[in-house]
């Protein structure tokens, strides 16, 4: 069998550092806390870590407003802590991808302060434009109608410089001017700095916003929008998003990473974050016979709701797979620090079924910390909110609910910190929803996650074909198979009712029965219990047959495919010989 590069073989686990593990009891996660939990990833068999920003920041946007790209914010530790982290990671053969916030800096960054003062060579490091005119009360009028992602004008007047500066996000996050070669050179130096530290890749944050049209033309109104006049969705962002120059800049960064890949004899990768239509995101793979990014992030699973049908899920999967260039690798994101957790959006049972789908489709699952536990959004009262976006607009815009502390055990603050009050409140369900409790239950979401990670090492999952088995409004199902190895059938009942289906009548090649590998925690006890005896999960082999759940006589559970019964939102992973 062919071998796969490191980033294709395994899950990418997204860590939001402030919420992962606190080591010094200040209520904020840090590198020493992260170091103390590295063996957790070995337990999960997860080897690729994606870190949220950890750079010095005034924290106007939770670390996405940076004052120095080549240092560590003291709240997360020191550069020595980072170096120790990298040494410990490399000892465990883990890979590290870091968030590269390339579009903008903090307004407290020395570059911006010097730019205000028009000190060279920093005068044009940012996008400065004269006022269009003055209003009747002598207020400067912005040069055009461009809007910030967070709402309101994307232009803020600087009284000292007597010009507007451009910011796609908060006023405290001025956009860098990538039309300036010196800016491009400085940011390549930043990439080189972290590559020298041993990082294995970068997530390019807000990549679609890196360039703007220099003509400064007004953007047209969006079609069929319900957005209000000052809201971002009110305009069609044809001059401030996905500009052609973006791809040339990314090619420059690609070339830099490739040089380090050759030197280190290990691929260095680019993830691209850009909230755009699929046909636009796909372009970040690069043109035929040329690579830009290994992983343009696929957020299409954000569309799945509790009422989604099997056909809806098929359309979501197809939208990426059919538009993806030949020879490229797909990926899937279900939750993130900016979007509600999947268990909150669809409920815990369907969330575990969707995890089966995401983990066993061809490609790379990008899992958000705590999703392996079924962590949910936490209700946070306005006085406890930390998200600047929500504080400036309305509480319902808050991203804090999906950023709450990792739930490690049933002790104070879920084992995240011994402080009196963490930076965000811990979810009230942590007593029963935590690593320690779920580790003790062979049918928990955590143990299911481990089994799914293990199944991803099977030849049929790594190298096999992908085919839909049967899809309708109730059912979403597909197979993964390769000659000479076990095949897998994944079946999910998307409906709120019980479903009985004869798969043999629809797919001639399927056997009459298949081995049950796993199902949702909600239904596991019933299916895997016989005479009050739990089936034993064998952990000693990577063989598909030995990952099956067995009773005390050693017999695996067989499920009839000509009379397959599924309860509401239930998913099953089944294996069979081909």
List the helices and strands and how they pair.
Elements: H1 6-9, E1 12-15, H2 31-36, H3 38-44, E2 48-51, H4 79-91, E3 95-100, H5 110-116, E4 128-129, E5 133-134, E6 140-141, E7 155-158, E8 163-166, H6 181-196, E9 201-204, H7 244-264, E10 269-272, H8 278-281, E11 295-296, H9 310-321, E12 331-333, H10 342-346, H11 348-360, E13 364-368, H12 388-392, H13 435-439, H14 445-455, H15 459-462, E14 465-471, E15 475-481, E16 487-493, E17 499-501, E18 513-519, H16 521-527, E19 529-530, E20 533-534, E21 536-537, E22 549-550, E23 558-560, E24 564-566, E25 571-576
In short:
With 578 residues, the chain is α/β, with parallel strands linked by helices. The chain is 24% helix and 17% strand.
Largest sheet: 8 strands, parallel
Terminal residue distance: 18 Å
Low-confidence region ranges:
529-548
* Main structural class: alpha/beta
Shape: globular
GO molecular function: alpha-1,4-glucosidase activity
GO biological process, one term: carbohydrate metabolic process
Region (Disordered): 392-413
Catalytic activity: Hydrolysis of terminal, non-reducing (1->4)-linked alpha-D-glucose residues with release of alpha-D-glucose
């Amino acid at each position: 069998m062919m071998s796969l590069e490191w980033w294709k073989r395994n899950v990418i686990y997204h860590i939001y550092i402030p919420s992962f593990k606190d080591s010094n009891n200040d209520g904020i996660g840090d590198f020493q806390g992260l170091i103390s939990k590295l063996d957790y990833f070995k337990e999960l068999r997860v080897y690729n870590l994606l870190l949220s920003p950890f750079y010095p920041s005034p924290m106007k946007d939770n670390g996405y407003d940076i004052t120095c790209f080549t240092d560590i914010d003291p709240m997360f530790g020191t550069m020595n802590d980072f170096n120790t982290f990298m040494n410990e990671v490399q000892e465990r053969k883990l890979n590290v991808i870091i968030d590269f916030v390339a579009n903008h800096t903090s307004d407290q960054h020395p570059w911006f302060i010097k730019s205000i003062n028009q000190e060279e060579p920093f005068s044009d490091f940012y996008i400065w434009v004269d006022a269009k005119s003055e209003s009747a009360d002598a207020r400067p009028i912005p040069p055009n109608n461009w809007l910030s992602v967070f709402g309101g004008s994307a232009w803020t007047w600087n009284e000292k410089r007597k010009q507007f500066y451009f910011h796609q996000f908060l006023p405290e996050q001025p956009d860098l001017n990538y039309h300036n070669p010196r800016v491009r050179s400085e940011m390549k130096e930043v990439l080189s700095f972290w590559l020298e530290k041993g990082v294995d890749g970068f997530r390019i944050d807000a990549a679609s916003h890196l360039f703007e049209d220099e003509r400064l033309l007004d953007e047209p109104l969006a079609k069929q929008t319900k957005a209000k006049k000052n809201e971002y969705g009110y305009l069609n962002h044809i001059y401030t998003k996905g500009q052609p120059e973006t791809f040339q800049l990314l090619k420059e960064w690609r070339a830099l990473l490739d040089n380090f890949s050759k030197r280190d004899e290990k691929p260095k990768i680019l993830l691209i974050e850009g909230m755009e239509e699929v046909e636009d995101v796909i372009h970040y793979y690069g043109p035929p016979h040329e690579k830009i990014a290994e992983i343009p992030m696929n957020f299409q699973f954000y569309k799945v709701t509790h009422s989604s049908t099997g056909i809806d899920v098929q359309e979501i999967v197809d939208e990426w797979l059919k538009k993806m260039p030949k020879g490229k690798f797909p990926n899937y994101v279900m939750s993130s620090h900016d979007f509600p957790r999947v268990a909150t959006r669809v409920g815990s049972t369907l969330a575990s079924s969707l995890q089966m789908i995401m983990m066993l489709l061809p490609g790379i699952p990008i899992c958000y910390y705590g999703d392996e536990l079924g962590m949910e959004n936490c209700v946070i009262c306005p006085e406890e909110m930390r998200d600047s976006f929500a504080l400036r607009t309305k509480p319902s815009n808050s991203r804090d609910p999906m950023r709450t502390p990792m739930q490690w055990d049933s002790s104070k603050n879920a084992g995240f910190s011994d402080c009196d009050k963490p930076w965000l409140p811990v979810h009230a369900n942590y007593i029963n929803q935590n690593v320690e409790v779920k580790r003790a239950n062979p049918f928990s979401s955590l143990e299911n996650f481990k089994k799914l990670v293990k199944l991803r090492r099977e030849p049929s999952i790594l190298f096999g074909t992908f085919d839909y088995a049967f899809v309708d409004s109730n059912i979403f199902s597909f197979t993964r198979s390769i000659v000479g190895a076990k095949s897998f059938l994944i079946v999910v009942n998307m409906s709120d009712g019980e479903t009985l289906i004869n798969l043999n009548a629809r797919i001639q090649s399927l056997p009459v029965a298949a081995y049950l590998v796993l199902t949702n925690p909600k239904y596991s006890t019933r299916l895997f219990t016989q005479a009050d005896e739990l089936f034993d999960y064998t952990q000693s082999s990577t063989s598909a047959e030995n990952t099956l759940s067995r009773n005390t006589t050693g017999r695996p559970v067989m499920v009839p495919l000509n009379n397959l019964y599924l309860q509401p939102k239930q998913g099953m992973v089944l294996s069979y010989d081909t």
